[in-house]
Design a protein that fits this description.
Elements lengths: L1 H15 L12 E6 L2 E4 L13 E6 L4 E8 L5 E7 L9 E4 L2 E6 L2 E5 L6 E8 L4 E12 L4 E12 L3
Antiparallel strand pairs: 1-2, 1-11, 3-4, 4-5, 5-7, 6-9, 7-8, 8-10, 9-10, 10-11
Length: about 160
């Protein structure tokens, strides 16, 4: 009888357990195409500090966004995207990118002022501190070389 009670309790506990969806692990993503070639933020895990290929900051009081993404595995390229509160801050829908910088193949590119560069805010989950956006931008180097960044997408936890 003792075993029957223990087995019954075990079966009851087993059947009452369910997966807790609130503890699922979020993975930051930052990817795009640079002149039609896929690019993704990634880095090599370090023994002491791990790996942090994406740093995203969103300031709720000013609706300003700053995100830095790098790839230290395939190359040494990095993106820096910034939307500040001068134009009303980041809003759901399409936003004009004011500042974007790309370091690619040892050349620094900045936003091309003659072209529309946009960032579309898809979702802002303030309770989870997660932001999700699409973006496209045309960049130009000091030498006049251009880079077209298309199909840009990121979803990242933000701070502070």
């Amino acid at each position: 009888m003792k075993y029957f009670i223990l087995i019954s309790i075990f079966i009851f506990m087993l059947l009452s357990c369910r997966k807790d969806e609130s503890n699922t692990i979020h993975r930051d993503v930052f990817k795009c195409e640079i002149n039609g070639v896929p690019w993704e933020a990634k880095c090599v895990e370090g023994p002491l500090f791990g790996c942090n290929e994406i740093d995203c900051q969103y300031y709720e009081n000013s609706s300003s966004l700053e995100i830095v993404a790098s790839n230290t595995v395939d190359d040494t390229s990095s993106f820096h995207i910034y939307v500040n509160s001068n134009n009303g801050g980041l809003q759901i829908g399409e936003n004009i990118l004011e500042y974007t910088r790309l370091s690619f193949n040892n050349i620094r590119y900045n936003i091309d002022p003659c072209c529309n560069s946009t960032l579309e805010l898809l979702a802002l989950q303030k309770d989870k501190k997660v932001i999700e956006c699409n973006f496209s931008v045309k960049l130009v180097s000091e030498a006049g070389d251009t880079v077209l960044v298309s199909r840009g997408y990121f979803k990242s936890k933000y701070r502070p």
